[in-house]
Amino acid sequence: MKLEQLDTPALFVDLDVLESNLEAMQQRINKLGVKLRPHTKAHKIPALAQMQIDRGASGICVAKLGEAEVMAAGRIKDILITTPIAGETKYQKLIDLKLRHPKITLIQVIDSKEHVLAIGNMAKNAGVTIPLIIEVESGQQRCGLDADEGLIALIKLINSTAGVSYEGIQAYSGHLQHTKGYEQRNKVARAAVKDVFEFIENELTEDDLRPSIISGGGTGTFEAYQGLSYTEIQAGSYIFMDNAYQKIGDEHQNDINQQFGIALKVLTSVISHPKPNRAVVDAGTKCLSIDMGVAEVESHPDIMYQSGGDEHGILHLPSTHCPELKLGQKLIMHPSHCDTTLHNFNQLVGVRNGEVVTTWQIEGRGRSD
């Protein structure tokens, strides 16, 4: 089947670009001398996670326990859950997941003594041990402890609690991933974790306090931390890229990031053309998320996309030299945010040289639990 024969709206990925992105990030991470633990909330597909591992990734990240269940069922062997969980139901699901897959490495991020005591108690009773990583505050003002005596106390509590083990620290500055300008982005990202690493180097020197894993960074900031003791980088969006990331700049220019190419796209159809300067496509907010801006029309930078609601996308055509759009004509959209756009679809179609060659179910779709 040709790409243009797909029914619309359809989510597809250019396999040549995706594979190039995978190779490029792994090579860059290798040069930095750290490990890559890609964040799979970007794609939610075990087969793509395995592609990342096959190219050298040490394991994966997931945002939610539900995503971890999907990845474990997909035979992924090393999983870090980057968001704390709370409540007996969630703790039991974590323990049950470990019991179902006893040979996998399943690491849970936490930031409080309540997490430690509850998970430890349930894990001990089940006869398993759950490795824990402590999230520290890194400028985002979200989850995470300050790097102070409270962090030391929590490490000591983990070390003295049966059913859990202390593995390390997560320091992730998600709010800085889209800072425009390569040098500025690296500067602010490094500044956000400076105090954390000073504390690690000066205070966590005893063997039972020293972290084995220090995890963080992302597609925007993975090159910001040279000389610091990160052991792994959690970049995720690089596999697909999107408009928001492409506009942050790279080491060569401030206006565009060409380290990775846009692989994830949406095929849409023109369904109405009521005015010469206005057309409508069948991709609204249920297809193209707008949380990071609006999508762009491939090969038509002069056409402006506007959300027309759940099911409609409005195209504003230039007043002069309007492109000739026909009802049923297929257009390709570049999403503004790959994670939330992918979450709108059940399937991802793999395309090479304009030919459909594979289809994946987005197995983690809806797994925000």
Structure annotation, total helices: 9
User: Low-confidence segments, ≥5 residues, pLDDT <50?
Assistant: none
Measured as a percent range, the helix fraction is: 25-40%
**Level-1 CATH class name of the largest domain:** Alpha Beta
The CATH superfamily name of the largest domain is Alanine racemase
Content-based structural category? alpha/beta
Distance between the termini: 36 Å
**CATH architectural category of the largest domain:** Alpha-Beta Barrel
> What is the makeup of the main sheet?
9 strands, mixed
- Output the radius of gyration: 22 Å
Mean pLDDT: 97
Strand content: 15-25%
The tally of domains stands at 2
Shape: globular
CATH topology of the largest domain: TIM Barrel
Q: What is the element string, with H for helices and E for strands? A: EHEHEHEHEHEHEHEEHEEEEEEHEE
Task: Let me know the number of strands.
Answer: 17
